Amino acid sequence: MQHPFLATFFLTSTLLFTQAEEGPSLAEDPSTINQHQSRPTAQKPWANKAPVELRKWAKDNLHFKLIGKRLISEDENPEWAWFRKSGLGIFLHWGLASVPPADGDAWAMVWNEHRAKNNLLRKAEDMFAVADTWNPKNYNPDQWMAAASQAGFGYAVLTTRHHDGYCLWPTQHGEWDTGEKMNGRDLVKGYVDACRKNDIKIGFYYSGPNWHSYYKLKDFSHPPVGYNYKLEKVGKEAGLVPLMGGGQLPPELAKKELAQSHGQVTELLTNYGKIDMMWWDGNSIMQEKEVHSLQPNTFVARGNIATPEGIHQGASQNVKVSNECGWWWEMCVKAENKHSPNWHYNPRNEAPGNHWTTNTLLTELIRCRSLGGNLLVNITPRPDGSMMDWYYQTCQEMSAWMKHSREAIYDVQLTAPLPTLDKTQNLTTLAQDGTLYSLHDQEGKILINSIAKPESVTLLRTGEALPHSFENGTLSLAVPKEKQTELPDLVKIILKK
């Protein structure tokens, strides 16, 4: 039997090593995330660069979330092929931050100048207090997942523990969980069972940082400038510990906090059967080899692949570089409340015009696939456990679209080079057999250069032939206005062999 001191030392050393390997914290304040700027780039920075040279360029010029930690070979890891093939995941931010007074923004308890000026701050204890009364009475993950499956979502990621540290299952490690506050109710199990029933791959989000743990010792500002848990300015000289890394609790407390987190992740990976994905935030609690000692086939996404956050980081020019470097990538993005930073539920998420349309969601999916990546779209359950009405309407519309157009999304090539941004500005996916699927621009036009002569050019939705011209390797056509719908109308282009 391992000595308790050695076990604790091993856990602490593991976390420190993992954080050092990852570099910057994987979590960022959503109110400031779009302020990051990549260095100016050449028109096509990937052109004429070997992948190894381009990877060096990317590390010097792009946001760190556009950088993959390592190259992944599908031949060596066939158990992860589902991830790239599925292409579309649903991100479920749900927990204490979904409940007022948080108003959807978990970071509202963290001081920054913007929140202070706009009266957006909430005291930590006020936000933590919702755990005493929160008990979602309309929790129906089976309904969520049934709709998601019909709509073409292949996997889901649930916030099992967000930065507030509250566990959505009755953990035996700590006392800040549904075991203490919901009389043992297990919200994670309901989610897992619903995913399996509806053939959705199971992903667990887990936040390394735990703001609730020893919160009176922590600096509730980011970057830390010295605000205590009451949001009182006490200055850096107070010696408060940063919320998101860069400092340490007193050694004995740090060991207890780490051992608790390690025990919780162990529960997640042993108590619920096969888990398909781990999605770390802030920092990873386990190294990949330890995850695989518990779940040999779990795909560790965040921290291994490039994970641009939002449209700003996930701009086409950026993710094209990630793809050309050979890194797998997944863009995580909010589908709602586009004018606010919250990733959890806020009533504004349901306001007309304040969430993605089905057309926007499908177009973003096509864009990601045309550039070799995945789309993980955040759609927020309400505090009571029900899902927003617009979500079900969107899933119905997506389901109808998938019946005629899914072939352009799922069984496509993802390894560079891909045509989008090289041969065409139209979002264009490439099937394994060389068939092209292209989305017309706002004027209905498609222009693709440097390709073989088409054997057929048809509207994918109906199969009808479309007039086109082909000269000197360039295909040009326009989809007539009367043949366009409110959803993406892809053109299928079969090239002569």
Strand content: 5-15%
In terms of structural class, how would the helical and strand content be classed?
alpha/beta
Which sequence of strands runs across the widest sheet? 7-6-3-2-1-9-8
Q: How many discrete structural domains?
A: 2
**What is the succession of H and E elements?**
HHHEHHHEHHEEEHEHEHHEHEHEEEEEEE
- The name of the CATH topology of the largest domain is TIM Barrel
Unreliable spans are 1-22
N- and C-termini, Cα separation: 65 Å
CATH class category label of the largest domain:
Alpha Beta
Q: Give the overall average pLDDT.
A: 91
CATH homologous superfamily grouping of the largest domain: Glycosidases
- Give me the CATH architecture of the largest domain, please: Alpha-Beta Barrel
Major sheet size, sense and barrel closure: 7 strands, parallel
Helix content: 25-40%
Number of strands: 16
- Estimate the global geometry from the Cα principal axes: globular
Number of helices: 14
Rounded radius of gyration (Å): 23 Å
